Backbone:
C-alpha cells in the first residue's frame, strides 16, 4: 500500500494481503489481513516499527523508499518476532547492514534464529526510551500479548501507540483508518473474531495491559493487523477488557454437554447426563454440535466449570464435528478443567477412549470415568448416565 501519514513525520509503510483466506494454518480470515509497519522520522534518527511477512519484502521496502532512504534507517523495532512481523527483517538487513534491531530480551533468541547471521541489536526493557530527535519511542513490556516476547511502542509526542497484535484485526480494505471504513460492522466482527482466536487464551495479560493503558493519552492505535484506530481507540480497549474479565462475572456453575448423534442414542444419553448434572447442583447446557455455531460452544467452554463430550463411533473413529471442536479448543486455556466423555456405539466404540485420551493430552482433568453404551441405551444404562452426570457435577463443584 502507498505510505500514509499518521502524524508529522510518522508514516504507515506496511502492506496489504486481501487474498489471505487462512492465517497461521487454522484461523480463517474472512476479510484478508494487513501486515502493518510504520516509519518515524526524528530530527536525528529514523526508526521503523515492525517488519512484514517475508513474501511481501519487496513491496515493503518499496513503500519505505517513498518516505526515507532504506540505507539511512537507523533502527527497526520488532515488537514481536512472529514471522508475519519479522519475516522481511533479513531483507532489510541485507539492504542496510548498519540498521540496529531493537527488541525485547525474550525476542532476541527468536530473531537470532530468524536472521541466522550477524546483525546489530539493542535489547530494551520496560519503559526504556529511544530518542530520535523530537520523537521519543518508549517500550512497554507486555509479554504474552500474544507471544512471550511481545512489547508495545509508545510515541508520546504524537499520542500514538504501536500496539503489535494487541487490538488488531485480520481485516484488509481500501481504507487505512477505522473511521474511513464503509462497513464498520465488518471491521468490528473481524476485531471480535481476532480477540476470540488470538487473544482469548491470554486474558490475564490482556487485563494487565488494559489497566496500564487505560489512563494514557492515546490519540491513535497503530496496530500490526487491520485498520489504524483513531476514531475512538479507547472503545476497542474497553471491549478487550470487558471480554477478558468475563470469568469474574460468572456466578453460576455451568457444564456444557456437547454431543453428536446419528440415530438419537448418544443424544438420549446426553439428556440423562444433563439431568444428573442438574440433580448434582450445576447448570447443564446441552449443545447438539451440528446445530450450534462453534463460537457459541467455545464461549460456553470458556465460562464452564467443566465440560462433557458425547460422541458416537463412526467407522472406528471420532466423527469430525467432535474433532473440529477439539481442534478449536487451542483458543482456550483448559488446563485442569474437569472433563469426561460418553457415547453410544455399534460395532466397536473406539471414539470414547480416543476423545478421553486427547483430553488427557490437552491437560484436562478427566474427572469421571468415561462410559459407553452399545446401540440403544436401556433404562439401566440411562440411569448410569444420570449417575455419571451427578458425579461429574460433584467434580465440577469441587474445582475452584
Residues:
Amino acid at each position: 500500500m502507498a505510505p500514509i501519514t499518521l502524524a508529522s513525520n510518522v508514516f504507515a509503510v506496511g502492506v496489504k494481503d486481501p487474498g489471505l483466506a487462512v492465517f497461521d494454518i487454522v484461523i480463517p480470515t474472512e476479510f484478508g489481513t494487513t501486515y502493518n509497519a510504520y516509519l518515524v522520522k526524528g530530527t536525528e534518527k529514523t526508526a521503523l516499527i515492525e517488519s512484514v511477512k517475508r513474501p511481501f519484502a519487496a513491496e515493503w521496502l518499496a513503500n519505505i523508499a517513498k518516505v526515507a532512504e532504506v540505507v539511512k534507517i537507523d533502527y527497526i523495532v520488532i515488537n514481536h518476532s512472529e514471522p508475519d512481523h519479522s519475516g522481511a527483517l533479513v531483507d532489510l538487513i541485507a539492504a542496510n547492514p548498519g540498521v540496529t534491531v531493537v527488541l525485547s530480551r525474550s525476542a532476541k533468541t527468536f530473531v537470532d534464529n530468524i536472521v541466522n547471521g550477524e546483525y546489530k541489536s539493542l535489547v530494551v526493557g520496560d519503559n526504556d526510551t529511544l530518542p530520535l530527535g523530537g520523537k521519543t519511542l518508549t517500550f512497554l513490556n507486555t509479554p504474552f500479548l500474544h507471544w512471550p516476547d511481545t512489547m508495545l511502542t509508545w510515541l508520546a509526542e504524537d499520542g500514538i501507540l504501536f500496539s503489535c497484535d494487541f487490538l488488531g484485526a485480520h481485516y484488509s480494505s481500501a481504507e487505512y483508518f477505522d473511521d474511513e471504513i464503509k462497513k464498520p460492522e465488518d471491521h468490528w466482527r473481524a476485531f471480535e473474531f481476532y480477540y476470540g482466536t488470538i487473544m482469548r487464551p491470554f486474558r490475564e495479560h490482556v487485563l494487565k495491559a488494559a489497566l496500564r493503558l487505560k489512563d494514557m493519552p492515546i490519540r491513535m492505535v497503530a496496530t500490526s493487523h487491520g485498520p489504524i484506530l483513531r476514531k475512538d481507540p479507547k472503545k476497542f480497549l474497553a471491549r478487550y477488557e470487558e471480554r477478558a474479565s468475563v470469568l469474574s462475572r460468572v456466578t453460576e456453575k455451568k457444564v456444557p454437554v456437547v454431543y453428536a448423534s446419528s440415530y438419537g442414542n448418544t443424544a438420549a444419553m446426553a439428556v440423562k447426563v444433563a439431568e444428573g448434572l442438574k440433580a448434582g447442583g450445576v447448570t447443564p447446557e446441552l449443545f447438539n454440535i451440528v446445530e450450534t455455531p462453534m463460537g457459541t460452544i467455545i464461549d460456553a467452554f470458556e465460562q464452564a466449570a467443566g465440560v462433557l463430550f458425547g460422541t458416537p463411533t463412526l467407522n472406528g473413529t471420532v466423527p469430525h464435528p467432535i474433532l473440529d471442536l477439539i481442534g478449536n479448543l487451542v483458543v482456550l486455556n483448559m488446563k485442569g478443567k474437569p472433563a469426561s466423555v460418553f457415547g453410544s456405539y455399534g460395532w466397536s466404540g473406539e471414539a470414547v477412549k480416543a476423545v478421553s485420551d486427547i483430553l488427557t493430552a490437552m491437560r484436562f482433568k478427566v474427572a469421571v470415568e468415561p462410559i459407553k453404551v452399545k446401540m440403544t441405551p436401556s433404562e439401566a444404562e440411562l440411569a448410569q448416565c444420570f449417575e455419571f452426570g451427578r458425579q461429574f457435577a460433584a467434580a465440577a463443584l469441587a474445582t475452584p
